[in-house]
Predict the structure.
Amino acid sequence: MVSVRQRTDLPAVTGDKNLIIKNMYADLHCHPGAAAYDHSHPAEGGKDKIPFDPWQIPQSNLINQSRGKSAFGYSQGDLAKSVTAGAKLLFTALYPVEKGFFAGMPGSRMGKKKIAEFYRRVQADGEITAAEWLLSDLKTQPGLEHIQKSSLEFLHCRPMNTSFERILYMQNGHYDYFDELRREYKFYRSKEGLRGATPALQLYPDGQRKNWCGTYYLADDRNGIRQKFNPLNEDITMVLTIEGIHALGVGNPEDELLREGEPRTDVTIGKLKSRIRQLKGEEALEDPELPRWEHRPFFITFANHFNNTLCGHARSLPMEARLIIDQRKNMDKGVLKQGTYEVMQELLGLDEDLQPTGSKRILIDVKNMSAAARSDYYKYVLRPFNYKPANKSCRIPLIASHVAYSGIDRLEVQIKNTYLEKEDAHFRINKFLAWSINLSDEDVIEVHHSRGLMGLSFDRRLLGADPHPRLVSLPLKGTLRRQAMKLFAGTIAQFVRIPFAYHLDEPLRIWDTLCLGTGFDGPMDPIHRYATVLQFKTVEEDLIEILADLKKEEPVWFGSHNPEELARKICFENAFEFVVKHY
């Protein structure tokens, strides 16, 4: 039995190295510029309301932030908070918000106009009044007469921070995913390497209001990370990722309503492959202002919340979201066309025979893929390549960027459960949310074999928390602490158990595959105790206690390694070493 890998790629430092290392955190999936970007994005035909600058962060609602509920009115991991928390390595997801969030339910009373009116009322009258208006409208529909206000809590997330003008822009026919992707890339490029400053902000309820300063860098490869990452300062290194293949120009819902002869909005498979090469810097970028994409995305979260026409997505939103958001098109389907494999091969730098082409890789993140789509990806791409002896030294690492555990052993069972429509709000197996968005034992085995990486989700709902907890609004810090630690403890224990239970080679290597993958500033319901990056130190302290208890129960899972060492690996070292090896 081998030991956990020792640090080999951490940058050389002088002084108290251990003190420096302990103050650094990495996050495999986050949106540190989301609050500033949404606030600055122009309305249709309009101009930026404030400078196009990731440091122009709006003031968070500190009451909402301190309550730790869904991130409405506050940001979870903006640049000011990340600098303060020591979150120095951020895998920054570029995400053209999907049209499905604002398309409503086609063919019903909850169409685009109704959704737009709701968000107009949010801005004009406040979220409480707007929610009451929406609730009263829903109650007039058959079967919804007794719907409760709590059913609309899922709306309290990033989309509700969006301006009415911005929503109208995203609803019209001119909103282009690839144009939006390039725009967000330019947004992060705008202040890269420059000393930035925020407006006067207060980060904590009892904290100082001031201008927060810092510098961030965009990495372009492993050498760029080594050169730019400095443990001795507060600078942030960003590794760009993409959330959703739709970002390259597919999955436009208006194509589902086309009449005969009308042009499609979705691009062809050939154009999609060309755009992948553009992201790698191998072809000129389709942009008059920017000739080349200079910072290759490290990975792409292939599926997301809605139909992308290439593969099925898993159910990702709370059950109540079905009242006004339609995820059904191709949900839970597998790979939808042969061209999907061509796209995957282009991303991974492979030809049709799964031979390397010499093109650099953009790794594939399976978060939000349906169980059927994951199964197809493993069967026809990942396993044929990774299990070939000649490829042992260049395996394709499997990434699952912000995930939890399902309580299910095989993908086949998850697929059957979706077919039988078992995935309701209360579908639990051994207290784990058993939806197919969460990983099965089979997924974890593939991560382990490929020497991949799993980011621990901070979404309490995916971790199996009670969707409507009775005590969450009460000031019982001890209760909230126990609840938070229980959610993490269960997930970690199951992930670590799997290689031992299945007698995999080098089972202790499972500790190299775990890291933080918060999902901050996306549509998520955070663990109340860890609602922002400002709680990262608390996360690490709690992890040490969780792992100490687990070691007492299952000492063989730890070998000679201590909880402090493993907590540090989860909080920073694993993500750093992984990106330095594979980027």
Remarks:
- The chain has one domain: 17-253+269-582.
- The chain is about 35% helix and 10% strand.
- The radius of gyration is 23 Å.
